[in-house]
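Record 1 of the preview.
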Amino acid sequence: MENENYDLANFEEEKDSKSKEENVDDNSIFLSYKLTQEEALTCLQHAKIFKTNGRRAQIQTAILGIIAILFFASYIYAHDVNTLVFGIVALVVIAGIWIVPKVYIKKLAHENANGPQITIRIYPEYIAVLNDADEPHLPLNEETRVLCLNDLFILFTGKSQLFAIPKRIITPEKFDEIQKILTSHTRPYEED
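->
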């Protein structure tokens, strides 16, 4: 019985999206989807919110590691509890440098995956996000950079915004057309 309700709900959702699709001109492509947690995580990792894998984090880790070793050596030599505590604090900070960003990004990915259904309309010049009341447009111009991954199109706008379109929701008939629209007037995203 539960499965029948689920199928009925999906049918109603498909019917609604088809009726929305029929009410708009043929110059656009209608898509509606929810990102999975893995897709959201991939987007956030490419957004480089944290520089955990960068040289700065490696230098901080090396410096704090040396400081921790010196504090532990001082504790062994002088048996001063303060130096032991400072050595432990240095190790905790090293753990924070590497663990906190990963945990935070996973939390953001979970929130994005559990967010509302994303409904968009792709035009040759822009993408209209239909969820929001003000219906923002993501321009498809020289300011926008596109990263084509195996399972996602990730768009980086000039306003430091990030937008993802999973390839799994694109029908094979529309895939080439959408890829051409997304890449024809934009620049490719080059990772550092």
